[in-house]
Amino acid sequence: MKVLDKYSNKTIGTIDLDDRIIIEQKLQQATDFYQNYKLSDSQTRKKYIEVIISCLKAHKNKLVELISQETGKPIFYAKSELDRSIRTAELGLKYFNKTAIQELDIDLKDTSFKESFYRRFPVGIVFGISPFNFPLNLALHKIIPAIASGNVILIKPSPYTPLTLDFLVKEINQTVPKGLVTITHCSNENAEFIVKHPKTNLISFTGSDQVGWHIKSLVPKKKVILELGGNAAVYIDESAELTGLATKIAKATTLFAGQICISTQRIFVHEHIYEDFKEALIAAFKQVTSGNPIDNVTNSPLIDEVHLRRLLDWIKEAEDSGGKILVGGQAQSTQPPILAPTLIEGGSSSIKLFTEEAFGPVGVLNAVRDYEAGAYQINNSKYGLQAGVFTTSAKVKDYMFDHLDVGGVIINGIPGFRKDEMPYGGIKDSGFGREGILYAMEEMTEIKLCIR
């Protein structure tokens, strides 16, 4: 399988796909290693995480180059992903002891028992499926908690962006035992085979809601963590501090061509400040730079031309429904596939740019009468990942936190805000379970009680 540079369209590498014989061998190797590893002490787990950190630091330049080439990500943002990846791995060192015995405060005085405690035990083999947009960091959000909690992991990267993780895993496996971290490149059919395989004990999937819920339907009795999509919204209150805010929103919508599951997509503005903010936002969108990732532009290529054609169809649907294109709305280039930063006003609430995940540099702007109407519109979605609220009102802050149906509310920040230690995940069609190293470790373990 050829892997392409997303800007030049040149081949930058090839990957061999695993057949079922190879997959069975990899699963058996993971199973064999797990039998000893599951009861390993915390220092052993720490040692393996330190190997990963060393590999990340030793190959920074190579990893940044691969990330940028195979995703089309601007260089500055690829460097940011590498830095975050190191931080993610270092969090494993912070939390690797969290599976230790925890004493319980249970009243045993009228019993023959003397003590009560519990401990978290690993589930076994984790099958991780990671997306194209953060091929290093989001894979490590599966690998690190798996290792830190005593599991082993088989990880499948996106076929769009397999080279970054393939390089890292090969480097890791020069030092750690075979079976701890195993990578597979395979067809969707064989990925389903692994999902349903009796040797895999937990599935951790990051990607589209359609694929995620399909995976869950295949294994209703197996533990599944789903970190899925969204059409993230912001509400801008009449009390908000507006200095620089339009520029911030434009960047939050168009960075990396909007190919982030918490990119700003729906923008709701209090009617009292709507017209002034609209003009500022139009100007900000017009200032967004597009083009070659090595030039550190904001709006880089889409992952492929299919995504570009889909977005152009959705923009036309919005326009046909009464929406007004304020900025952009057309392809800046088809090869590489670059959509001009696009801002649309209004349109039917049933258009796909309002109801689905765009995964493109497109924002839909609407006025609302007040913060309660803003909350209603944000909640008027099948998704519930994160939302941003800009306000200086304590009343509005509290109301939004209490009433927004999302996994995270970012007050005076964009919905795309994420730190790798925070609990991250969504509700409704955006999935269930939480990532963030400590929280993923909890998902990847089972509590076992002991009374004695």
UniProtKB/TrEMBL annotation:
Q: Which EC class is this protein assigned?
A: oxidoreductase
Domain of life of the organism encoding this protein: Bacteria
Q: What is this protein called?
A: Sulfoacetaldehyde dehydrogenase
Q: Which UniProt keywords apply?
A: Oxidoreductase
Q: Which GO terms describe its molecular function?
A: lactaldehyde dehydrogenase (NAD+) activity; sulfoacetaldehyde dehydrogenase activity
Species this protein is from: Parvicella tangerina
InterPro entries, alphabetized:
Ald_DH/histidinol_DH, Ald_DH_C, Ald_DH_CS_GLU, Ald_DH_N, Aldehyde_DH_dom, ALDH-related_metabolic_enz
Q: Which residues form the signal peptide?
A: none
Q: Where is the active site?
A: 227
Keyword Oxidoreductase on entry: yes
- PANTHER family per UniProt: ALDEHYDE DEHYDROGENASE
Q: What positions does the domain Aldehyde dehydrogenase occupy? A: 2-448
A Pfam family of the record is: Aldedh
Gene it is expressed from? safD
Q: What is its EC number?
A: 1.2.1.73
Q: Which family does it belong to?
A: Belongs to the aldehyde dehydrogenase family.
